[in-house]
Amino acid sequence: TQSTWDSKKRIDSMNELIGRVFDFETKVYPSESTLYNQLANHGQSPKALMISCADSRIVPEQIMQAAPGDLFVCRNAGNIVPPHASQLGGVTATVEYAVMVLGVRDIIVCGHSDCGAMKALATDADLTSMPNVAAWLRHSHAAQKVCRENYPTDLSDAEKLRNMALENVVVQLAHLRTHPSIASGIARGEIALHGWYVDIHAGQVLGLDGETGRFSPLREGQPMQVALPHGRRLAGESVYAQAAE
After folding, report:
1. Rounded CA gap, 51 and 218, in Å?
2. Which of 2, 41, 87, 196 could form a disulfide with 110 if both were Cys (CB 3.0 to 4.6 A apart)?
3. d(CA 86, CA 176)
4. Which residues of the chain fall below pLDDT 50?
């Protein structure tokens, strides 16, 4: 029967994943034992925090060719960062820990093509049966409003979805700056923010240029687009300097 076949298929899929665990124990770990022992004995010092979508097709470590210990990763539906104090949860705690304990200096918000969460926003999908998803996606309503009121109405569905995903990255970067640990780190010039978009179909990564507000492909040998570069930012610093004079 169909149900028996579906059950067998699920078991086979899980057995395949378990087989990879055995490969890790017998092949991967022995070949990387020095690195794992170093991480186990001396702790982690990740180079960046990446906030990406939970979509199974987007693997941050693979995109960045990262080794164990390179990346601190937070994944959720829609690569969303709730504004500070609006919701206590895993994203807020992860951001705070990455900055205040691990000393992360670069934070990446990474969206992607064909994102289901963004598709729900772009199509005004009925999420009545998924109230938690609907509540979560309210953190992206600003991106939805930007797209609805500022882009042409005759765009294709693919173009609308792409624009939604890009604008969502911009919105989540703005939310990041409401977190006290991020705001203080930015003011000291210790934290830089990056907005990325992975185009699954083209196999390329776009970066947000904070000066132009636009995304373009990251290219080897060229300056990297940065949403907010490292740089001391104290609004009243020049005022105090002038007063001292």
Report:
1. 18
2. 196
3. 12
4. none
> What pLDDT, on a 0 to 100 scale, did the predictor assign at position 15?
81
Q: 49: which residues sit within 8 A by CB, 6+ positions away?
A: 71, 72, 73, 74, 94, 95, 98, 99, 104, 106, 107, 108
Packing angle of the helix pair 90-100, 180-188 (nearest 10 deg): 30
Question: Are the C-beta atoms of 110 and 80 separated by less than 8 Å?
Answer: no
Contacts of 229 (CB under 8 A, 6+ apart): 192, 210
Cα-based angle 161, 162, 168 (whole degrees, multiple of 5): 90
Q: What is the pLDDT of residues 109-148, one digit of tens each?
A: 999 999 999 999 999 999 999 999 999 999 999 999 999 9
